[in-house]
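Re: the pair you flagged

First of the two:
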Amino acid sequence: VFAYFAFKYWLATEAGRRKFDEIALKLPVFGPIILRTNVSRFTRTLSTLLNSGVPIIQALDITRNVIPNSVIASVLDEAKVAVQEGKSLSNTIEKSEQFPPLVTHMIMTGEKTGQLEEMLGHVATAYDAEVERKVSSMIALIEPAMVIVMSGSAGGILAALMIPMLSVMNRVR
């Protein structure tokens, strides 16, 4: 109980949350899914805001508040400052090394062609589909393991019921 509350307290601190998010992004199976989910959320939100006519500085500020991962959110904070200074959004995101190369390339292409909103929309659609596919394949891998665990549990319960009955029957003979 103490460890649980200590963990929750640590997670509530800024440094604890950042460390937890860094670890989450590096997890073998779940890390890529977490990253792609956050990237999809970032690109979809930014695309929608820019399509609605919101200035990019405000859009980055709003988008930063939508991202639950503090590591990705801090990159967006840096990107906002860089864009205010007249630098490219894609260069800032690329320097962070948190985003996949496809995302930075698509943002760079969108900035050069003047179609940033459309490119962000394409990235969001692609990453949504990829996350869905990865989660489906993970579930497909988990299903056989769950069948084995459930059948083992049922066998254990059956043995727990039958062994005492058999021992009583042996004593009666």
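Second of the two:
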Amino acid sequence: MKLLCISGSPIRGGNTHHFIEKALEIVHEKDIEVEIIELAKYDISDCIHCDWCLTNSNPQRICNIKDEGEALLWKIRETDILVLGSPVYFGRLTGRLSSLVDRTRPMIFSKPHRGIMRDKVGVALCVAWGRNMGQETTLISIVSAMMIHEMIPVSNYSTGSIFGAAGVTNEDELNADTKNRHVVELDSYGIKGAQALMARAIDLAKRIKRKKVD
């Protein structure tokens, strides 16, 4: 089973990446192949709606734009569980992550890749400056993209992670520690929710795989 995590932060090794790592601490199965990708390390262009993918996508190429996004699209295509994490920027996901999401358009419209994400399991994560600062709108933007692909986003009511899990880097906005790039690890409530979502995602993906075999 493949579990692909993508951090949409422009900062390498920052709080969003660390929040994903904390969520993955509950993953112990040896048969689960885990990969974390930081978009900060990639050069990805925007989708320009050239419609090349509608008629020209093929088993060897998904998108006509020749950049590092193509390799990521193949990784997304082949994964069983997709985790998308983003810092909260003005109540929404980052432009960097949005560009990648837009580039998955061929997986909806192109003939050889159409519907490939259907019934894959999705996890939405985000990290914000403080409480009530755009977490849910950011998570919903991620979950909406997953639903458009007919994926199955997981939730966990008992941990308050209804649309996904949110970490907080600063409970006291007036006395922020801007130098600590892993301060999200102090948010035990957010981490608990992220780990609960990861556990649910793995369980659901396993059941989907068993059903396909049966």
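The radius of gyration is 17 Å.

-B.
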